[in-house]
Each structure stands twice: as C-alpha cells, then as structure tokens.
Amino acid sequence: GIPQAGFNSADAIAKLKAQGVPASKLLLGIGFYGRGWTGVTQDAPGGTATGAAPGTYEAGIEDYKVLKNSCPATGTVAGTAYAHCGTNWWSYDTPATIATKMNWKNQQGLGGTFFWELSGDTADGELIKAIN
Hints:
Elements: H1 9-18, E1 27-31, E2 33-38, E3 51-52, E4 61-63, H2 64-70, E5 75-77, E6 80-85, E7 88-92, H3 95-108, E8 112-116, H4 126-131
Parallel strand pairs: 1-8
Antiparallel strand pairs: 2-3, 2-4, 2-7, 5-6, 6-7
C-alpha cells in the first residue's frame, strides 16, 4: 500500500529514542529484495494496482539481483528506488539509496545495520558493499 505517516524508519527510530532506547542499541534494516505490484498504469508512486507482481519465490517479492536487470530503477521516493516496467511497479533499494540511508544512520548515531536476505544481492555484493 501507499506509505502512511508515522510508519517509516525515521519515525520508528525517533519513537524508540523518545522512549529512552539508546541510539547505539538500534539498527537500521535494509531489504535485499523489492516489493512489486501488477496492473499499474502510471510511472509515479501512488497509483492503483490489481495485485501483487509475479516474483521468483512468491508474488510481490523479487530479489534485487533480478530487478536491477529486469526492471531498472527510474526514480526514488522516500529514499527508496522505484521502477515501472510494463504493467509492473517495483520499489527496492539500490547501492545509491543504501548509501543515503547509511549516511542517515550514521547521523542518527545508530548501532549498525542488518539486512535480509543475502541471496538477493548480486554475486559481487553490490548491496552489502554499499552498507560498508
């Protein structure tokens, strides 16, 4: 669905810090996969869809290593890349968006980063290198 105010990493981190959780104990999560929808007619985020896009393992989810070639990113929204290919629309992180998120994580003083799922990265580790 369309992102809703208050349901994002920045707001979650701020709420945890406000509750007294030390920034050094918090981690930023990065997905090495994308989320996709089908039946999409517009390039820009926020359009309608008829369902989940086809994925290798399950509908609506595809590895970065597949998406970077099959549906290359054409823009960013809320710090994450997106792409519209045919009737499918995908949102996923790229090395560039991860670099931006790592700068933000460092500014926030967070303890580190975790990711899921290593097999979604390219053979030469584009995404994990961007975290480093």
